[in-house]
Amino acid sequence: MSLFCRRFVSPLCAMLCIAFPALAQIPTGAGVTLHVSPSGAADGDGSAAKPYATLEQARDRMHTINISLGILEGGMTVLVHGGKYAVRQTFELGPKHSSSFENEPIVYRAADGETPVFSGGVTLKDFVAVTDAAVLARLPEEARGKAVQCDLKALGVDVPKDPLVLGGMGSGNGFKTHPIPELFFNGALMTIARWPNEGMVHVADTCVQDGHQVIGIPGSKVGRFVYEGDRPARWKDEKDALLYGYWFFDWADSYERITAIDTDKHEITLAEPPHTYGYRKGQRYYAVNLLAEMDQTGEYYLDRANSLLYFLPPSDPNQAEVTLSLLAEPLLHMEGVSRVRFQGLTWELAAGDAVRAKNIQDCAFAGCTVRRCGGDGIAVDGGRQVSILSCDIYSMGRGGVLIEGGDRRTLTPGGLVVENCHIHHLSRIDHTYTPAVLVGGVGNRVAHNLMHHINSSALRVGGNDHMIECNEIHDVLLESDDQGGADMWGDPTLRGNVYRYNYWHHNGNWRRTGEDLHCGQAGIRLDDAISGTLIHGNIFYKTAAGKTGFGGVQIHGGKDNVLENNIFADCEQAVSFTPWGEKRWKEFTGKFMESPKIDAALYVQRYPELAKLNENVDVNTLRRNIVWKCGKFLLRDKGTNILEGNILDPGAETFVNPEAGDFTVKPDAPAVKEAGFVPIPFDKIGLQKSPFRPTLPEAEIQAARAQQ
Q1: CA gap 427, 395 in Å, rounded
Q2: Is 90 exceeded by the pLDDT of residue 14?
Q3: DSSP code of 111?
Q4: What is the pLDDT of residue 30?
Q5: Sign of CA dihedral 542, 548, 551, 555
Q6: 564 pLDDT more than 60
Q7: Rounded to whole angstroms, what are the CA distances from 480 to 16, 194, 456, 483, 575?
Q8: Where are the domains of the chain?
Q9: CA distances from 333 to 360, 381, 617 (A)
Q10: What is the pLDDT of residues 196-229, one digit of tens each?
Q11: Strands, DSSP E only, in 416-477?
Q12: How many CA atoms lie within 13 A of 530 on its CB side?
């Protein structure tokens, strides 16, 4: 076991066989300690009396000390004092910045009781009323006399001059972070001027009938379409307007640039490159980045060419903290680093990603905060024994945590962990496939996290042998369709993954308000041949929706999946299937066992069902599941699945307090006891107290569980 594990991991409950790291403070002992402070100086020496001003100074000095020490007794600590640090370039760590000592990491940690904040943003001031007649003519009537402006050039703020470029999952510009400066008012995110202010409008028709189809659905590859109404006539002077939409499928979003508006024909022409799947009638979109639509309090527009910010503030901006995220590069970048820890630091206001790491080993982020950035939170690409523990990640333009570690060909585990993190309010720029946790590779763990308020999935899982346990997920799938709170897709060799003791509740359109989207939204979706997955001891409550109908679990063509000892409560249907039949199954899966990404012999040894990949198609096992107040137990079941001892409609008295979202099963519930249902450790699901999370948002958690 690594030193990190020996110091920080202790058992939570032997009954559950679930390890939960109880973290202790990283001691400095009699080792090396360097101090960094916002009041430090360029000529500082790193002492408490004369601290450094930057992490770079401390990093370089620690490197010199590290390579000169023969024996180290105690730790190597960079003690970071509270206050705000303006970040104008990425803090870089490379191989030479690793600890040379197997048992002693280099630790960058907050001083006790202090909060150091590393900010890629700038504070704005000197707002004045808009008086330019040409600008006032472009503004909506509602904004005239209320709008203010800030001259960024006068403040020395260098904003990008090129037109705004954004992406999205289906974008021809690439599905990646496209940095975008964003405005915050007293810490609250403001809105880029858009129309409509809420919701979306629909494509009336496409203009070019070119025979384009995707899976038999007709559309057009040409970005020219008919709009309804007269609103776009207001946009004739807009040079940087974008349309955000779901142009073909309700899970593939993108931003498209307007190049022309024909108000006579009611046609909009979009710039190349086109959306990946094309365009079709009836799909939804809205307009964004238009000064002519700045009509609601909190909206703003950045005139990039002239370095002017226009704003409809909630109150006097000269009496508030108004900040603009700016740094396009990551706040922290690590590559080839070993044995480095970060504890209690905050990163914020990057226009792009906050933290990016590649090929790192035995590193950790504990008790850190990442917030108010335009891209992803913490991304680890190619890691071993990396832990992200008790961190808060929120208000992000894309996703929360991305981890990729382990070798799929050899099934060597990566040992990456995301645990006890609160990850929420994500995906405001790229709305789909930007989850709270994206996990790939082999043998990684996602546990005891609270994830909520995400436009699409909370979890995106690829690879093998991952453990997803004791997480609470609610208020996700707020916008996208054909998705699950946890989503897996497209490869029958992605096996050995386990979902246990997770609580999925109030997800998707569970209230069934408005018009349902075409397909559906599930708690866990095993899409396109995902097989060999164990779903044990989960609770699915009010988490199934859609016109086609998804259950708490949706299985699209997969086999060898086991659903056991779960609770399905107040779902439209508990479990839904899309059976494929032998012909479609064989056509889709024919080449997977020949892929160079895997060792077929090793895979058959590890997952014996792969030896019979083309047998028992559409056969999954459901046993000892409780189904309570669901419209249906099974939807689209063709009679191929194995059903054993499932408990249907046992009564509300089975649970301690279902109205409050507490689905602890009473031990004396007769129907459950007779069926052999094993109690779910409900109180161990979600966030847990630890040295890096001494308090929990208990009122928020209870309110979310008791939604009506």
Answers
A1: 8
A2: no
A3: P
A4: 60
A5: negative
A6: yes
A7: 35, 20, 5, 7, 20
A8: 1-119, 124-323, 465-708
A9: 11, 11, 46
A10: 999 999 999 999 999 999 999 999 999 999 999 9
A11: 417-419, 422-424, 437-441, 445-447, 450-454, 459-461, 467-469, 472-476
A12: 26
| Residue 697 DSSP code | -
- Provide the pLDDT for residue 27: 35
pLDDT in tens, 136-195: 999 999 999 999 999 999 999 999 999 999 999 999 999 999 999 999 999 999 999 999
Give SS3 for 149. Answer: strand
Over 70: is that where the pLDDT of 20 sits?
Answer: no
Q: What is the DSSP string of 628-677?
A: ES-SEEEES--S-SEEES-EE---GGGEEEGGGTEEEEPTT-HHHHHHTP
Which two three-digit tokens encode residue 355?
């933290």
Kindly indicate the confidence band of residue 22, based on its pLDDT and cuts at 50, 70 and 90. Answer: very low
> For 458-609, where are the E strands, in sequence order?
459-461, 467-469, 472-476, 483-489, 498-500, 503-505, 521-527, 534-536, 539-541, 553-556, 562-564, 567-569, 573-578
The mean per-residue pLDDT over the stretch 86-110 comes to 95
SS3 232: helix
Which of 540, 550, 520, 531 lies closest to 489 in space, CA to CA? 531
Closest CA to 257 of 234, 233, 235, 283: 235
Residue 455 · residue 427 · CB < 8 Å:
yes
Q: Is the pLDDT of residue 651 over 90?
A: no
Tokens 């929420």 found at: 424
Helix, coil or strand: residue 48: coil
List the beta strands (DSSP E) in 448-490. 450-454, 459-461, 467-469, 472-476, 483-489
SS3 state at 32:
strand
Structure tokens at 502: 């997770």
**Statement: the pTM of the whole predicted model exceeds 0.70:** yes
Percent of the chain with pLDDT over 90: 90
Question: Residue range 515-522: average pLDDT?
Answer: 91
CA 445 to chain centre: 16
Check if the beta carbon of residue 635 is closer than 8 Å to that of residue 577.
yes
Q: Nearest 10 degrees: CA dihedral of 281, 282, 284, 286? A: 70
d(CA 617, CA 584) in angstroms, rounded, equals 10
> For residue 515, is pLDDT > 90?
no
